[in-house]
Structure to design on (698 residues):
C-alpha cells in the first residue's frame, strides 16, 4: 500500500484519488478550499498517517506557483508530479525550487468531463485514455518509475514526450479546436431564434466544446501562447485569404480542399488509419424503448457496431440513427432489420 | 397520380424521385449526364408519358441558369421549384424568364449525406427533416400548395421563410460552421503523426464537416457571399482581438465566455430548450457484441436513451460510451447495469 497526497480536489484530482483508493492505496486529499478537500476525502476514504511517497499537483499552473515550495518542504523525499494541460511552464516553476527538479516529472492525462468538481469525479476517468509524461534530463529514474506505476494503476496509457513537443502538439489538437469552436459559437450570440431553429448536426458538432470552462481555458491559452500564437496567425491568414478571394470559386474550392486534406490526416479509431465502414441510416420514432429495441435487433443479428450517431429534427419526434459497421455486418443487419419492419435504407454499395 | 419531372439526378434529386415513386407518383429523371439520368430513372421506375405537373430543379444554381429557359418552354403550365442551398440567387435567375416568377417557388430541404450520386439516394432522406420554402410575392397560390404537397409527401417538415432571411440564416447555422471546421482542419495538414495521434473527440467533432464536398461548397459560399462576408469579417475581428490580448487572461476568458453563450443559444433536441439529461458513462471492451449487449440491458431495464456518444482511445481496445437519459432512467439503468457487472459510474447527482 502506497500513500499518495493529492493537492487539488477538483474533478481530475478526486478521480485519481478514487482510482487509487479502488486499488487499496492510501489517499490524502488537499485543497485551498477546505470543504472541497473534505468532500473529496470523504469520497476516497480515510487518509492514512505518515509521509506521502507520491505528491500529485492536480491544480492549474498558476496555483502550482503558490504551493510548490511548501509541499516540497512538507515531503522532501516524495515524488512530485503535476497534471496541468501545458508542460513547459510547470518545468520552469519547478526549476526555481532547489533540489526539486530531480524529484519531479510533468504529466498530462488526456481525460476530462464537461463538468467539474469532486462530485463529478469518476474512478474510471482515465481508463484507456492517453496519459503523457514529460520528464526532463534532471528527473530521477525512480521518479519515472513512480509515474508509470501511477498511470498503469489508474488504467491510463503512458506516452513519453518532450515537454516542448507536448505543448506544441496540444496547441494543435486540443487548443486550436477549442478556439475554433469558440470562434464559431461567438457569432451565434444574439442570433434570431428562428435562424438557430434551423441548426443541424454540423453546427452542433462544430461548437460542442465551445461550452467548456472559460476560466480553465483562459489559463491554458495564456500558458501555451508560445505555440498557440503561430496557429492563430495562420488562422488569420486563411480567413483574410478567404475574404479576399470569395469571388473566385476556384480559390474557395482550394480552401475547402485544404480542409478535406487536414481532416483526412486525423487518425481513426485506435490511432490507426481510418477504417472503411459502411454507414447504415435507420429512421426511428422518438418514443421510449426504440433505440433499445434497435440494439436488441443488433444483438440478435450478431453484428458489431463500430460507431453511431443520432440526428434529431427540430419540432418533430423522429430521429435518424446512423450505424457504422463493417460492410459485411451492414449487409447482415440491413436484411435483418428490414425483415422485422424497421425503416432501414438498403445497402447499395 | 401526379407526374413530376426532376432535373438533376444526384443524391437529392434521386432521393425525391424515390420518395415520390414510393407513393405511386410518376417520376421522370433528367440530367446533363445521360448515364446518370438512366441510373436514376431505373431506381425510381418507369417515367409515365405526358407533361409534368411539377418540375424540380435538383441542380446547383450555376446549372439552373443553363436549363431554366428550356424547361419552361417544355412545360409552360408546370409548377417549378428548386432545392439549392441558397435562395436569393435562384429568384434572381427566375425573374429573367418572362412569366416564370408566378409558377416558381424556391425551396431548400435541409437534408443530405456525406456521399453523393444517385446510387446513394434514399427515399427516407427527408423524413422528419426541415424543408424551407421561400415564395416571392409573385408566386401563385396553387404553386405554394404544390410545394406543401411535395414536402408532406416525402415526409419533410415545411418552414416558410423569406429568401433573404433564409440565406442569412444558413450563412450563420450552416455555412459558418463549414468554414470554421475547414479553417481548423486546414492547419492539420502536414502535422506530425505523433501529434495527431493525441487527437481526441474535441478535434474530431470540431472538424467532422471539414470532409464535405469542395466543389459544392465553393459554389454555396460564392452564391451566398453577401451574408457570409460579414460573418468572416467578424471572425477576423475576433481572431485579431485574441492575438492582441493573448497576454491578458481576463480578455481570453471573455472570449471563451462569449463562445459559451453562443453555444447555449443553440436549441436542443426537437427545437425546444435544451433538456436536462443525466450523462451516464460506461466503459466497454471494444469486442464484437459489447454495444449490442449494452443496449440489450437498456431494453431489459425499460429506459429511454435520449442521446449517446462513443469515445475511443488511440491504440487501445476499450471505449467509453456516454448515454444521455432522464435522471430517473439514469438511476434505474445505473443500478441495473452495475448489478450485471458493467463498468458504470454511479449516479451522484
Amino acid at each position: 500500500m502506497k500513500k499518495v497526497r493529492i493537492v487539488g480536489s477538483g474533478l481530475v484530482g478526486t478521480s485519481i484519488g478514487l482510482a487509487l483508493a479502488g486499488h487499496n492505496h492510501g489517499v490524502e486529499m488537499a485543497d485551498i478550499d477546505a470543504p472541497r478537500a473534505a468532500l473529496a476525502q470523504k469520497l476516497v476514504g480515510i487518509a492514512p498517517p505518515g509521509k506521502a511517497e507520491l505528491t500529485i499537483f492536480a491544480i492549474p499552473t498558476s496555483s502550482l506557483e503558490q504551493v510548490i515550495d511548501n509541499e516540497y518542504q512538507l515531503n522532501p523525499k516524495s515524488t512530485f508530479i503535476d497534471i496541468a494541460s501545458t508542460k513547459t511552464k510547470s518545468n520552469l516553476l519547478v526549476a526555481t525550487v532547489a533540489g526539486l527538479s530531480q524529484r519531479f516529472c510533468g504529466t498530462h492525462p488526456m481525460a476530462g468531463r464537461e463538468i467539474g468538481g469532486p462530485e463529478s469525479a469518476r474512478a474510471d476517468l482515465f481508463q484507456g485514455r492517453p496519459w503523457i509524461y514529460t520528464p526532463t534530463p534532471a528527473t530521477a529514474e525512480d521518479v519515472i518509475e513512480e509515474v508509470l506505476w501511477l498511470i498503469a494503476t489508474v488504467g491510463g496509457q503512458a506516452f513519453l514526450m518532450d515537454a516542448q513537443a507536448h505543448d506544441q502538439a496540444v496547441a494543435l489538437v486540443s487548443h486550436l479546436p477549442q478556439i475554433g469552436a469558440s470562434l464559431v459559437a461567438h457569432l451565434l450570440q444574439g442570433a434570431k431564434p428562428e435562424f438557430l431553429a434551423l441548426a443541424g448536426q454540423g453546427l452542433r458538432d462544430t461548437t460542442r466544446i465551445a461550452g467548456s470552462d472559460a476560466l480553465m481555458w483562459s489559463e491554458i491559452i495564456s500558458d501555451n501562447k508560445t505555440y498557440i500564437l503561430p496557429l492563430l496567425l495562420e488562422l488569420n491568414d486563411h480567413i483574410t485569404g478567404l475574404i479576399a478571394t470569395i469571388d473566385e470559386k476556384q480559390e474557395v474550392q482550394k480552401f475547402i480542399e485544404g480542409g478535406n486534406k487536414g481532416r483526412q490526416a486525423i487518425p481513426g479509431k485506435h490511432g490507426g488509419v481510418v477504417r472503411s465502414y459502411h454507414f447504415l441510416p435507420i429512421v426511428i420514432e422518438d418514443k421510449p424503448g426504440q433505440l433499445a429495441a434497435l440494439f436488441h435487433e443488433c444483438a440478435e443479428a450478431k453484428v458489431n457496431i463500430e460507431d453511431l450517431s443520432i440526428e434529431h429534427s427540430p419540432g418533430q419526434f423522429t430521429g435518424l440513427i446512423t450505424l457504422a459497421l463493417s460492410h459485411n455486418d451492414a449487409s447482415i443487419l440491413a436484411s435483418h432489420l428490414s425483415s422485422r419492419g424497421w425503416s432501414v435504407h438498403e445497402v447499395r454499395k
